[in-house]
Amino acid sequence: MKIGFIGLGNMGAPMAQNLLKAGHQLQVFDLVESAVAELVKAGASSAASPKEVAAARPDVLITMLPASIHVRKVYLGEEGVLAAVDPSVLLIDSSTIDPQTSRDVAAIAAKQGNTMLDAPVSGGTGGAKAGTLTFMVGGEQAAFDQARPVLEQMGKNIVYCGGAGNGQVAKVANNMLLGISMIGAAEAMSLGVSLGMDPKVLAGIINTSSGRCWSTEVYNPWPDVVETAPASNGYTGGFGSDLMLKDLGLATEAARAAKVPVVMGATAQQLYQTFSTQGHGHLDFSAIIQSMGKVEK
Fold it and tell me: What are 245-279's pLDDT values in tens digits?
């Protein structure tokens, strides 16, 4: 299959690599020349703009971009995808953005005959490299069925969420809960250790009791409790605090538009905003525990 791929960042590059490994013909574009060079070295061809990727008439065109403003520019700009794409091309945007932008761009694409899916992912850079991502997909059922074989070569769980924008709805709701639960896990671990508990013993009790969650069991924020967690590697790798802040912002903005109260989500956003302002935005989001006092190994 001929696939166009735009956006070769920490997530997009390994996703594109997995498509190459699956035997697809890939043409790529990114503003970072070194990222493009790595994919070309692996067997992809390069393009000078999103418009050029679209003009090559791929069977599927995938984007993985940082934010809503970039999605609008890449699809709607003068050198964007919709300026040259053939109506037969299936468009898939795997960026994490606000649901309304996804719906707006999909509607504009539909007016010129293109079907578009929003397909944000969960699983982090590790999942992107391993090809085990979860895709949350919004759009037409027929387009989802068409896209599924391609998505399965980058992910393990491919979930249809309903109409356009619903993939983004699932993503922002999930990540809001993740941010909240990580803060809860950090507070519980900090409290228990401060009162004299061994962190591994405490985590073991929590993970066999009613407090158990992904943030305590798989991604525990206390160092050396979970060997594979970023907390055990200086809070490097994984999912950055600034990325969590971005997703919490998307969630609270969507909640404002829908007039739905998200008190805990808004509080989590403010805590991560403070943490980022203090210069810690580059650390994994589990490092929020550092704002709760001394963390000892």
Answer: 999 999 999 999 999 999 999 999 999 999 999 99
Q: What is the pTM of this model?
A: 0.90
| Half-sphere exposure at residue 246, Cβ-oriented, CA atoms within 13 angstroms | 16
User: Is residue 121 in some structural domain?
Assistant: yes
Strand partners, 155: 133
- Answer whether residue 185 is part of any domain: yes
Residues 6+ apart with CB under 8 A from 253: 98
Whether residue 296 lies inside any domain: the answer is no
- Can you give the pLDDT at residue 124? 83
Q: Which of 171, 200, 246, 259 is catalytic?
A: 171
What residue numbers bound the domain in which 152 lies? 2-163
Total domains in the chain come to 2
CATH code at position 141: 3.40.50.720
Annotation marks residue 171 as catalytic: yes
Confidence check: pLDDT of 169 > 90: yes
- The Cα 265–Cα 288 span in angstroms is 15
